[in-house]
Amino acid sequence: MTPTPSPSPTVAVVGFSSATYTAIEAGAPVTITISRTGDLDSDVAVSYRTSSTTASARDYTGANGTVVFSPGETAKTFTIQAFRDGDQQDETIDLTLSDLTGNAVFGHETAVLTVMDIDGVVH
Ligand SMILES: [Ca+2]
Questions:
Q1: Which pLDDT belongs to residue 99?
Q2: Which of 6, 42, 95, 98 has a Cα-to-Cα distance from 14 of 20 to 30 A?
Q3: pTM above 0.90, yes or no
């Protein structure tokens, strides 16, 4: 008798590589990675965007766009640059994924980038 294949349906898991990131104000741009694990055989697209309730728009270079994982691809990146703003407090930037298409589910759908303040540092 023919063994019945037991299909184990795999899906891609797409999300930020971490739930938290850290950048230093006026430091090097921070690279944010969107990773894809699980099913690597299909095309998967996802959109990303940055927003913030504590940092104003001129405090960092926001990013938004759509990335497409081709078969075999496991990581996509974008960068954010935080600027010195004169405020003496750490600020956070929210990273959000949306519009996931293809055979995929979300991992870390959101993440938080903390920008470490340098204005309040006592030298
Ligand atoms: Ca500051």
A1: 98
A2: 6
A3: no
